[in-house]
Amino acid sequence: MAAKLEKTIFEAPIRADLIQAVVVGQHAARRSGTHAVKNRALVSGGGRKPFKQKGTGRARQGTTRASQHAGGGVTFGPQPRSYAQSVPKKVHRAALRSALSLRNQESALQVVKTFAVSEMKTKLVAAELEKLGVDDVLIVTRERDRVLERAARNLPRVRVLAAAGLNVRDVLARRSLVMTEDAVAAVTERLR
Q1: 10 Å Cβ neighbour count for 174?
Q2: What ranges do the domains of the chain cover?
Q3: Can you give the pTM of this predicted structure?
Q4: What kind and span of H or E run contains 139?
Q5: Contact 92, 20 (CB under 8 A)
Q6: Do 186 and 3 meet the contact criterion of CB atoms below 8 Å apart?
Q7: What is residue 10's three-state secondary structure?
Q8: Statement: residue 103 has pLDDT above 70
Q9: Whole-angstrom distance, CA of residue 25 vs CA of residue 3
Q10: Superfamily for 7-31+83-191?
């Protein structure tokens, strides 16, 4: 490994509970929550009382759009809402340290001087990854590299992220992690 990895970040205790809390939070935040059904106020019709209150021998009814009638509204049905969970920043940082430490402990973390391609060609990225001996990989650069992102997007098991966007879910979703030295410095500064 070319760069010196800080022990507090890349050799931190692995906290599976924090990792799980953050990943569940990330998955929950991705849910759209746009499901909806009509309640009795939203169903059209039913303004008139279907039959008189007394004298019919039947149960009293105020509208044909109540939930017990066919074509009526749904009682306690789903309505649009946010599924996002509040996860403290300290927990996010601790979980990311744990995920990076896990990859380092598994020897699945490689630090390279640079990872750049001269032109937007998928085969150039594939050749670089073959040199490193990885295929299912998350590549982390210091700044967003649009050329590298577009060159790598046709590779099904490769993801490219800037250091600012590094998160627990993406670290764990790939078997290997390749970081540039600049990215290691940026992540270290962020998690210190």
Answers
A1: 19
A2: 7-31+83-191
A3: 0.81
A4: strand 137-141
A5: no
A6: no
A7: helix
A8: yes
A9: 32
A10: Ribosomal protein L4/L1 (3.40.1370.10)
